Amino acid sequence: MRESLTPGVWGVVATPFQGSTLDVDLDSLSELVEHYEAIGATGLTVLGVFGEAAALTAEERRQVLEIAVECTDLPLVVGITALATRPAIDEITAAQAVAGQRLAAVMVQANSARPEVVIAHLDAIHRATGANVVLQDYPMASGVNITTAALISVVTWCSFVVAVKAEAPPTSAAIAELTAAVDISVFGGLGGQGLLDELMAGAAGAMTGFSYPEALIACVRAWQRDGYEAARDQLLPYLPLVNFEQQARIALAVRKECLRKRGLIKESGVRSPAAAFPENLRYSMLTHLREAAAALESAKDSIAAQAHATHHHTSVGSF
Length: 319
Prior knowledge:
Elements: E1 8-12, E2 17-18, E3 23-24, H1 26-38, E4 43-46, H2 58-71, E5 76-79, H3 85-99, E6 103-109, H4 115-129, E7 133-137, H5 139-142, H6 148-157, E8 161-166, H7 171-181, E9 185-188, H8 195-200, E10 205-208, H9 213-226, H10 228-235, H11 239-245, H12 251-261, H13 282-317
Parallel strand pairs: 1-4, 1-10, 4-5, 5-6, 6-7, 7-8, 8-9, 9-10
Antiparallel strand pairs: 2-3
Helix pairs in contact: 1-2, 2-3, 3-4, 4-6, 6-7, 9-10
């Protein structure tokens, strides 16, 4: 059996900014990554597309990664922005210098539709750095459209690829094809929008961001433990918010504003060329957030009641 990334929910971490100059807010970032650890995330994905890594300087990327290392004990996947081989190697070397043994893998985008080009790219990266790779298929970000069959070829040739992040719609169809052909974890993304269908297709979980990551974790755990119906019941109350967050062109700004309203980050600014939050959607956002907050509170009450009942039963049984 080849090495494979641990199943579960790997939270894709937003990069909070502050003030009119949009400097990286390291205090908010530390609170955000600590929250992911407290709620039971399997690991963190930092410097991904939704971490606005392409809008960060090399020094800012180092600072972001340092916070993730210092403030949690979670394993880390680090996103690599470069599509060309040499710049990607430089990014990976810099990440390794900060993360060390905490670096579970680097996330590298498929940079060509031709599998032989991707194989050569990844092979050069691995020979230079020794890093494990999460292969990301995200045409909306990379501009590259690669077939699932070509992805399978890449994974088959590159034994150091420990997971695939499948974000080319229809994701569930691609995940079903991938999981039937490769023996490594395949994760869905896209804010959890297709999570239930992706789990049914064989996904190992989700590698994505969402302002209520508790819901994604509860859904995947329920799936692992009890199957579809339990997973559906966990995710269902949050689906309007999942859908609202994933709107084209404004998804990043919407999610950051939702995180701000939850108190997980102080400000919700995004760097150009990302679009700002549309104020005329505020009522919709507040409605969805109110429902999500009620669902989370209800879930906590249910867990507390179950714990109390178990404790009471144990205490009675001990007499």
